[in-house]
Amino acid sequence: MTTHAAGSAAAPQIHVTGRRILATLVDGLLIAALFFVVALLSGDASATGSGVSAATGPVGTLLMLALVFLYYTLLEGYLGQTVGKMLLGIRVIRESDGGRPGPRAAFIRTLLRLVDGFLWYLVAFVTVLISDKNQRLGDMAAHTLVVRA
């Protein structure tokens, strides 16, 4: 974080809604590619002249769920950024001191993606727009902010 001349910490730039949307799309594309690889490895993916088809059975679905949780929890917990956030110049910080969230807070954020992601992230979008600190439900529960990197 930068500081003012008087030495007090500058307020983090929390107005990053457009960047958050684009970062979510980038992460979604990466996860979709990972899903296709898992489906390919399990023999349930194919590409034809008319398109691409991919599916996973129960084991593949559980594997994908675990990989998605690990992706968000590890990257946001330890680095403060997913690949999408890195590319868009934003990061997740602890609300209290601006530090990296840590795996516990990142896990809470990730768990609440199940609610925030409802209706193609409409819940998250509306919550970010109406909250004072531009937080989705996962941020509120984990006491985190998404700010410019």
Strand order of the largest sheet: 1-2
Profile the largest sheet.
2 strands, antiparallel
- Taking the alpha carbons of the first and last residues, their distance comes to 9 Å
Secondary-structure element string: HEEHHEHHHHE
Number of strands: 4
- Stretches where pLDDT falls below 50 for ≥5 residues? 1-8
* Gyration radius over CA: 17 Å
Number of helices: 7
Tell me what the structure shows.
The protein has 149 residues and is an alpha+beta fold. The protein has one domain. 58% of the residues lie in helices and 12% in strands. The chain is built from seven helices and four strands. The chain has helices spanning 17-41, 58-79, 83-88, 102-111, 113-116, 118-130, 137-142, and strands at 45-48, 51-54, 90-94, 144-148. The strands form two sheets. It has a two-stranded antiparallel ribbon. A two-stranded antiparallel ribbon has the order 3-4. Helix 1 (17-41) runs antiparallel to helix 2 (58-79) and helix 2 crosses helix 4 (102-111). The model is unreliable at 1-8 (pLDDT under 50).
Short description:
With 149 residues, the chain is an alpha+beta fold. It contains 7 helices and 4 strands; from the N terminus they run αββααβααααβ. The protein has one domain.
Layout of secondary structure:
Elements: H1 17-41, E1 45-48, E2 51-54, H2 58-79, H3 83-88, E3 90-94, H4 102-111, H5 113-116, H6 118-130, H7 137-142, E4 144-148
Antiparallel strand pairs: 1-2, 3-4
Helix pairs in contact: 1-2, 2-4
Pfam family, one: RDD
Keywords: Cell membrane, Membrane, Transmembrane, Transmembrane helix
Membrane topology: Multi-pass membrane protein
